[in-house]
């Protein structure tokens, strides 16, 4: 495939070139990396840029703590412990009711920057 | 097309400069507090002031010392001028949203009087800060004592005129405007217009236009939020006003496209005037293609004729008159293409690198990993990789070019891809508007380098 400056990069493939490409798949580093990723995570969706992915990005900073839910759940469960989160405090599933302990404490940084020291 | 990877020929990037270490600011601790991580760096229009913002919501401004004949070695050093807490952590109770105090961007206003003004923003609120000097104090008031206590008016028998006496310089920062409640999503960019009266702020889905004097109103000029959020395919990643044409601005997307909009054509600029996108080679498309094409920064050249975009692996220069492809492409760290799987797993593939032009638009700079940063000379097509490290921090020491080796045989002084420290990222860099002085933020440290000839 010749690469001329200024031409459209879209390339048309003949039969010979198609086979070439298939052989190249393993050689193209991105494709090899993709294969590695899919081997590790077989359930990975096809398109990474989909709306789920972007929505997660848009929701950064969301902390779910509803005092009503929390107190009602506490009342229902009485003495039993509320299910606690796993290692990931920020992802909330349908079952889990966040507790005040789950929410990461708000950091305070009201000290002078070390750059000014 | 320029596509030189690594350090070709060891030549200096940027018109044969020799970059020397000048200063480093910040603590040397191994344990870096999150609040100390620098999140933005910006020179003002004259280059005499250099502002940094950090994750702790603090702004530190450095001022360049005047050249002093008796101390020739302090050749324009930057020292602390002012520091203040710009933003504090907040919690939006209605939406259960924690609002970080991290300063996303700082943009200076052109200087119009003795005071300096800058805009600083976190995810939700933009603030206009006034930084002013006070070097005189009035003494000899009639109605109060020297220590401020009110005097008994019936005891005053004579009048005097207060006189101004010099005092130690005091630099005060005060918030003059607070522009709040206009962004549902997270602000990624602010840009002051060339009219010096308005500015834009952009979040993931919307761009708003503000007047610097008016805080209770802003105009929405771009809205890409789909009616049904399930149809969301791309977000706005950066936006900037044209340096000379006050009606023109651009915004980049997570899909690697740039839209140029003209505010004269309609009030809501959802329809672009120009659409910049490099055609993709379908045979090389992969799972990672869209992620690495996401543009993390867009900057107009000083001339206003070009713009530069930064995506994960490269920097591209676009001619505003040509929408179908960039005129120049520079590979920043092409060797990472065969590491995309691990970079996706450790989230580094989502790192947002910035880029900048030098004053004459002849050179560009951007950061990389392992505290490396890259400079490209557009004229000679030469490039150089340098490192911001305490080891190369002797005063006026010339920086040695660095090289990453990808193949099997590692030469002496080269570093292999697998030894790179991906926690040492240089995301924020700035170039002095006229001189060859660069500021590089390496996590919690700010490095300043100067050209030897300077």
Automatic annotation (TrEMBL), chain A:
Function: Protein phosphatase inhibitor that specifically inhibits protein phosphatase 2A (PP2A) during mitosis.
Coiled-coil annotated spans: none
GO BP, sorted A to Z: cell division
Pfam families membership: Endosulfine (PF04667)
Keyword terms: Cell cycle, Cell division, Cytoplasm, Mitosis, Phosphoprotein, Protein phosphatase inhibitor
GO terms for MF: protein phosphatase inhibitor activity
Predominant place of localization: cytoplasm
Name of the protein in its database record: Alpha-endosulfine
Listed InterPro entries: Endosulphine (IPR006760)
GO cellular component terms attached to this protein's record: cytoplasm
Localization: Cytoplasm
Family: Belongs to the endosulfine family.
From TrEMBL, chain B:
GO cellular component: protein phosphatase type 2A complex
Keyword Iron-sulfur: no
Leader sequence residues: none
Keywords (A to Z) from UniProt: Repeat, WD repeat
GO function term, MF aspect, one: protein phosphatase regulator activity
SUPFAM superfamilies in UniProt: WD40 repeat-like
Family, similarity comment: Belongs to the phosphatase 2A regulatory subunit B family.
Protein name per UniProt: Serine/threonine-protein phosphatase 2A 55 kDa regulatory subunit B
Native species: Chelydra serpentina (Snapping turtle)
Lineage: Eukaryota, Metazoa, Chordata, Craniata, Vertebrata
